[in-house]
Amino acid sequence: MSFGHVVTSFTGLRAKTEGEDFIVEESQESSGLLNVAAIDSPGLTAAPAIAEYVVELIKNKLGNMQKRADFNPNRRPNIHFMELSDTEKAKLIQEDPRYGRIICRCEQITEGEIIDVIKRKVGARTLDGVKRRARPGSGRCQGGLCAPRVMEIIARELGIDITEVVKDSEDSYILTGKTK
Ligand SMILES: Cc1cc2nc3c(=O)[nH]c(=O)nc-3n(C[C@H](O)[C@H](O)[C@H](O)COP(=O)(O)OP(=O)(O)OC[C@H]3O[C@@H](n4cnc5c(N)ncnc54)[C@H](O)[C@@H]3O)c2cc1C
C-alpha cells in the first residue's frame, strides 16, 4: 500500500493494574464509592455482565430497591440512511428532506443523520462527537470536504457561533475567526 492510501489511525490505552483481574468492588477507603476499574480486554465483551454485577453490588449496598415500572432499557438505534431499503429511504426523505442531503460523500452520511445524533439524548456537541456517532469524516478524505459543513450544522443546531465549535475537548478550537 502506498503512503498516499494511509488515513488517520488510532492508538488505545488498555487499563492495567499489577493484578490480572478487573477491579469491581466498593472502595476500601471511601464507603459508597464503587470502583469499576482496570477493565482491560475483553472489557467491551464483558460490559453487560459487569453492569449486572454492579447492579447487584448497589442493591446489596442500598437494600430494598424497587425497579421503576416505566423504565425502558431500550434506546432507538442510530439511523444509517444508506443501509435502508429504497422504500424506507423515500419514506424518510418525505418525512424529513434533510435525509436527502448528503454531507459526507465518502461515507454517504446525510444531514438528517447528523442532526439526529446532535439532537438525541446525550447528543454530540463536538466535531469528533458527531464523527464517533454518525461517521462523517471517517472515510477516504478524513473530513477534508465535510468537516466545515458538519461544523456549520453543529453551530446552527446548538445555536452557537461556528468559531465556538471544537474538535473534541474544551480548548480544541478549529477556527479563530474570519480571514476575508
Ligand atoms: C486497542 C484495543 C483493543 C481492544 N479490543 C477489545 C476487544 O476486541 N474486545 C473487548 O472486549 N475489549 C477490547 N478492548 C478493551 C475495551 O476497549 C475496554 O475494556 C473498555 O473500553 C473499558 O471500558 P471502560 O468504560 O472501563 O473505559 P473506557 O472505555 O476507557 O472509558 C473511560 C472514559 O472515561 C473518560 N475519562 C477518562 N478520564 C476522565 C476524566 N478525568 N474526566 C472525564 N472523563 C474521563 C475517557 O475519555 C473515556 O471515555 C480493547 C482495548 C484496546 C485499547
TrEMBL record:
TM spans (from-to): none
Domain BFD-like [2Fe-2S]-binding: 102-156
Pfam family name, one: Fer2_BFD
Domain of life: Bacteria
Name listed for the protein in its UniProt record: BFD-like [2Fe-2S] binding domain-containing protein
Source species: Anaerovirgula multivorans
Lineage, highest ranks first: Bacteria, Bacillati, Bacillota, Clostridia, Peptostreptococcales
